[in-house]
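2024-03-11 09:14:02 DEBUG pipeline.ingest accepted 1 chain
2024-03-11 09:14:02 DEBUG pipeline.ingest length=210
2024-03-11 09:14:03 DEBUG pipeline.predict start
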Amino acid sequence: MITFIVLIVSIDWYIGTQFNQSIYSNINQVPKRKIALVLGTAKYIQQSGQSYYNAYYVYRIQAAAKLYQTKKVDGILVSGDNSTQFYDEPSQMTQDLVKLGVPSQYITQDYAGFRTLDSIVRAKEVFGLESYTIVSQTFHCQRALYIAQAKGQNPIAFAASDIQTVAGLKTRLREVLARFKAFLDCKILKTHPKFLGTPETINYRLHRDR
């Protein structure tokens, strides 16, 4: 049991420390990449029978729009869960990015981003990306970069604002187990995405459109 706990803690520490040089929080320091990959999450959360905005979602959308507006990227790939006709993260993200001024023609939807691993693998295998900018909170970016490296990719990341509350602490504790699962998926189980499919094209802003 002690060995198992040490392993989980060691993996969490490794993922949390080895990729920070590739994560940027200052928009002025973010290297230019053609595409930003926004990792999906629910727009709303349910608490005590009421629906609230998910701050993680809001901050990710704002960060992605900022990358486009400052010309750090020329297109955005939104990747999330669309497992039923009643739950569609990519379409919701697209709508909210358009509201923030990102042209819809430069937003591409990945409807099979059921997990972070799926989103990262499909970014390369389906959408042809290798050097791109991941958008999420720092703790999530660290795990995404770990998966990307394990899959032979070399993206960077732009960290959206985090949540410094009890809810943020609970998310961080869940992240410890998520990182262990990522280790198992990448190094032991060699897990594949739920769906892969055929290659798709990403539209992005050309130089003459700027």
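2024-03-11 09:14:41 DEBUG pipeline.report The beta strands are 23-24, 35-39, 44-47, 50-53, 75-79, 107-110, 133-137, 156-160.
2024-03-11 09:14:41 DEBUG pipeline.predict end
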